[in-house]
Amino acid sequence: MNGMLGLLHLATFFPPWVDEEPFLVTGLALGGVYALSGVGLIVLFRTTGVLNLSFGAVGAFGALIAWQLINHSGLNQWLAYLVCILFAGVVTLVYGMVFGRALADRDPLVKATASLGVTLILLGIMDLLWTSSGGASRAITLPTDNHGFMVGQVTVSTTDVIALAVGVVITVTTTIFLRVSRLGTAMRAMASDREITATLGVPVARVEACAWFGCGVLAGIAGILLADLVALDATTLTFLVISSIAATLIARLSSIAVTFLAAIVIGVVESMVVPIESLTNYADATPFVLAVIALLVLSRTRALSGERQGF
Fold first, then answer.
1. For the segment 207-217, what is each residue's pLDDT rounded down to a tens digit?
2. Who contacts 164 (Cβ-Cβ below 8 Å, separation ≥6)?
3. For the residues 186-207, what does the mean pLDDT come to?
């Protein structure tokens, strides 16, 4: 009897699967964007030792510039998106070359805090230039939103497919790039020991510049995709980077493959929690809840492995 009551309680707690299906699609798309963001964060961290907390703000700023160019300057959509990506890349590169280099020998916490300062500055500028008071509504709608297909009763837009596909492509190509290219090898060497790498004749400044610019480019791409998938709001886009950071934490800021898998799981769970009425208000906490659980499990597994080996 108690078992039946428990099943009935679960049935009322979770919405019907048909209500969850659209959120699964959205979650996979978001997971793809979180994955490409996580890859950018990990490559930059492994190369320079900086956890770039300004990633989301840079992408949000670029997306708002693209919106401005499209709606007020009449610029072609794709050119506006290219401006967004280049803006994000250049801003991140300039920060890395000026402040990143100056802070190269400081503690990782100091480096991360400095990038958080950039986030606050960019948020302030965005609030001045694109104030949200007065009910102003902005949106970026990619042309691919108008095309798609049906999976059962769910409509899947081409944008959803692109978001997931970009995450997969960035993950695979970055992994191959780091393994087979000269620049990728230099980045991996710097991740092991920056000073020894420099003494071997590797142009450290140039390698770091590539890492900063690449991270910025991915921030711009993520900003455009998230502005379409979620909302073109400076604060929302800025702090969506938290989900990507959670994925990188699960991967211990080292494994690109684990980051991808974690990002997909976070995106799906975060989205599918939304239609559960009692959990809707806690959906934003999902990334770090999953990160904490994963880290606890990994730590426990490592501890048990150490005990078996006699450590």
1. 889 999 999 99
2. 28, 29, 31, 32
3. 76
